[in-house]
Amino acid sequence: MTEVGDPRPIVAVLVSVVGTVGILAAHRRPNVREAVTLSVAVAKFGVVASMVPGVLAGDVYVWSLGRFVGVPGGDGVAFALRADALGLLFAALASLLWIITSLYSIGYMRGLEEHGQTRYFAAFAMSLSAAVGVAFASNLLVLFVFYEVLTVATYPLVAHDETGEARAAGRKYLVYTIGGGVAILAGTVLVYRLAGTIAFTPGGIETLAAADPVLARAGFALLVAGFGVKAGLMPLHSWLPDAMVAPTPVSGLLHAVAVVKSGVFGVSRVVLDVYGPETVGKLGVGLPLAVVATVTLLAASVIALRKDHLKRRLAYSTVSQLSYIVLGLALLGPNAIRGGLLHIPAHAFMKLALFFCAGIVHVETHTDHISEMAGIGRRMPVTMAAFAVAAAGMAGIPLVAGFVSKFYLLVGAVEAGGAVFAVALLVSGVLNVAYFWPVVYQAFFQTADDHDAKPVVEAPYGGRRASTLARADGGDEADDDGADPDLDAGDSADDTDADDPDPDVDPEELGRPDFSGETVDRDYGEPAPRVDGEYAVDRHPSDHTVPDADGADDDHGPDAGHDGNDHGPDASVGHDDNDDHGHHGGPPPGGWERRDPLGGESTWFMLGPILAATTGAVALGLVPYAAVFLRLVDAVVSAVGVVG
Amino acid sequence: MTDVLLPLLVAVPVLAAVAPLLLSLRTTETGWYVAAVTCAVEATLAAAVVRAVSLDGAVRHVVGGYERPYGIELVADGLSAPVVALVAVVALGVLAFAYTAGPRRNSFYSAYLLLVGGLMGVTVTGDLFNMFVFLEITGLATYALVAADRSGRSAVAALKYLILGTTGASLFLIGVGYAFVETGTLNMVDLADRLAGGYGDRTVLASFGFILVGLGLKTAVFPLHTWQPDAYTYAPDTVTTFISALVSTVAAYAVGRVILTVFTPAFFEAVPAARTAVLVFAAVSILAGSALAAVQSEIKRLLAYSSVSQFGLVVAGFALVTPDAVLGAVIHLVGHGLMKGGLFAAAGVMAARHGARTVGDYARLGYRSPVVAGAVGVLGVVLVGVPPSVGFLGKWYIAVGAVRAGAWPIAVVVFLSTLLTLSYVARLLERLYFAGSTEPTVAAGADADADAGTGAEAGVDVDPDPDPVADGGDRPDSRAPAAVSTGMVAVVVAAAVVAVALGFATAAFETFLGGVLP
């Protein structure tokens, strides 16, 4: 391995800082602004990609500003960037996917006519600078610098909606991630104290191996806990589902790739280049980390089963998948590490495709909840096909990226003598199928009028009593309903939801209260007790603004208007962000119309990126070596020198 | 040449302070020009001093040729050089702010220049009693400045400050007296020599205690801070910008000077209880200051309590007396001066433009004053300690110092201080950019903004003063600048830029401090 002085690492970081300035300057001309975003994204990827051949050949590109901090009389910490195989893996991934996401963002933000688009694109460019800075950091402190910049730069994106929910999510995000940052800083100081250096050294810092084991363990715990916040390790994950209130491209690129992977990347730097697998094994901290990761990946999958909001389900899936990577690193064997690292790009492509699908459905139909998506395959054929492919990859079905990385992980787990971890991985694969298959299945093989009940999502925790009341969401609409049961029911519900007396009740957490019986504000004055099985059948789409809503409901008799009313406010509580569009999710009255699969369903600004991300996921699954990422991973593993 | 630099540094502003008063005989608003020329000269002198220090390590001047232990010595070394630079730069910057923001009276600029002279004096003196004299000059000038808008509330705040500040100075003087009784000298270097060996002596301990409590009052470390939130809140915005950046900063510098030069780290080794006491003092200040800041609703008061917390950090750095901690303390001292000055200047601009005085008033001002709000955002984030910035640098060194010294509780508090600072900064930033657009406060702010143009009724809507009759100023919100100029905005932006840029200035700080670190 030869170190070559080269300014390209810093250029790769700065190019989008310049882009941020350009985007802000062009705030009056959206087309110029978007052109700046795209050209900067392409330039950034170009710079990063130009380093790949050299790094694969064994070079490391280094750029240094000189000493950043130091201790008087001691050796300091350089502000240096260093493009090695591991860094390039992350940088290439983030910058490549940024191009795709930028295109998608244009379609998404314009499709929804979002406010604050300049702020959005500027913060996005800045986040990417920080992410690439994280990738190329040459020591823990520089990594920390960019990690914090990333936190600050993504905050405006999380709070983008400017609703109370978004502000709360932003606050939570800041507290969690800056808190994690504090732990990282403390761990860094501790390592600096113990080892005298914090520069990344493949295979670990030697002096650290000889240091006081108790303090070394404390440092490891602090660093991993700090990075674990962004990596979504339980119990530090809860900011991530809340952050799904952000626009979908943010959820896609940042909360499935750049931000969360910066946490995972930090963990991998700590394990591989600060402590080194050997020292981690000697200190005995690998096993606890593996246990935490295993618990996270199983628990998050189980929680995902219950999430009806598609983005939240994807968020929990992300939490689960990130722990695959951490598990691979914690198992310390060469194949486990290879599988873990390969899962970084594999998961990125697949999850990006999935989020893009969720976003395009939101833009086109304002539907966010899985229970409203029955039959949506007619309306969005390409989207849901891509969703199916990516979801299959998530579950580890061969020919898609997820299979390759999971294969290595399984082999690695068995090699490392952790058969229990292999079993956990397999169980998690089954759970993946369990929470993705219903989405795919009902999209294509059911219709809005005729679909099965979803007991896992709909039933309340702890089971349902034999007899339940139909209404779960408070009595105020019921009064409206009683007074005016006919045509206006849907509209009056629309009007009242703005003044919802109990906005704190989160219908997702309760599993869609319009199905869940008595969980919320049960109105005992309600005259219509109902029996379980009827809901899914009786539930009829009527929440739209088309005036002849009731006509469609006629055949359901007296319950119909009531039911439609029931549906309206819940949908809108579930996605406040749509209120201003004056339209609720769910299928239109006649069920989903059939659209032409060749672009009839949406703009190519969004379909293109979806197909690109899906293609990437398939390419990684079919020809992982040709897709470069596996070769980078191999270079990392050989540089670390893990003994098999 | 260099031997006259130090006396000039002190004498020029003090002598020039007379000029505006004399000019008052003929004109009313010429004081600013006198101050501008003086501060420009002062900046040149400061640059020369800083350059001389970086070349020679230290500059000395024996006043009147009387050698120590009898005469007074002026010394600029690596510890004072950054503070000298800060005072000179901030004095110029605040003048740029004051040109439009006012006050314009000549007498204001007399006090202003007197304060600059006093601050420079404290910074470069090598004599403990002389330090007391300059502290008193500083204090007296500050009392006058706090009440410069002649409102009732600022007068009360100034009186409170006067009583507590004088008490602090008296305690300091008692401490100096004890030290003099013990050693027979007042020169700092001589004191250090003669105190060595007698550290356990009760007089020495008492001397240390009195000096530190006295300076703690001046620095406004919890629980001796009570004068400071009122003084900062009710002083005119120009004055708050100036004193928040410098007055407590120089007092904290005096703490560092006394600990490092007079009592020396050897004292702490001999009497570990003294060090523990100071550290506890500092740690409590960090926590309590942040907690108090987090519950404030008025911007200036919030920033004032934040200063209580940040100075706890500085004192902790000095008290750790490891090289890195002291380096961190000096960096944080300078950095905090810049950040707080910039933030208070921004608060003044916001008050003048939008009549915004409380966190609630700041709703969505990020879109109405994007440049100033952006600078507030950067300065706030720097205050939290997000790298790369001077705020991070200071915290890093203090944390490394605490870990090296094995002072784990202090290390934990230093790390926690990041989150505590975040608790109030994030609230402010969220208001600036993400407050709901339909909330009534925006409407109120808009009214105030419209009114502020006429300057007639701006305060009626927004002044938290429940009794606007009492404050007797010519405008109801007599603290706010009369108008906003480009220069004022430039000052705020410059503070933000410098605060980030200094994040890469480790080498410069180390060059200066290399010679004086323990």
Explain this structure.
The complex is a heterodimer of chains A (644) and B (518). Chain A is mainly α. Chain A has a domain at 455-581. In chain A, 65% of the residues lie in helices and 4% in strands. Chain A contains 26 helices and 5 strands. Chain A has a 3-stranded mixed beta sheet. A two-stranded antiparallel sheet of chain A has the order 4-5. In chain A, strand 2 and strand 3 form a beta hairpin. In chain A, helix 14 (334-365) runs antiparallel to helix 25. Chain A is globular. Mean pLDDT of chain A is 77; it is low at 477-503, 510-520 and 527-583. By secondary structure, chain B is mainly α. Helices cover 75% and strands 2% of the residues of chain B. Chain B has one domain (2-513). The relative contact order of chain B is 0.10. In chain B, strands 1-2 form a two-stranded antiparallel sheet. The longest helix of chain B has 34 residues, at 237-270. Chain B has helices at 2-16, 18-23, 31-56, 80-101, 106-124, 128-146, 152-183, 188-195, 202-219, 227-234, 237-270, 272-294, 299-320, 323-354, 365-368, 370-384, 390-404, 408-434, 440-454, 458-462, 486-501, 506-513; strands at residues 58-62, 73-77. Chain B is globular and about 65 Å long. The A-B interface holds A 65-73, 76, 79, 141, 144-145, 148-149, 151-152, 156, 159, 162-164, 166-167, 170-171, 174-175, 178-179, 181-183, 185-186, 189-190, 192-193 and B 323-324, 327, 381, 384, 386-388, 392-393, 395-397, 399-400, 403-404, 411-412, 415-416, 418-419, 422, 426, 430, 433-437, 504, 506-507, 510, 513-514, 517.
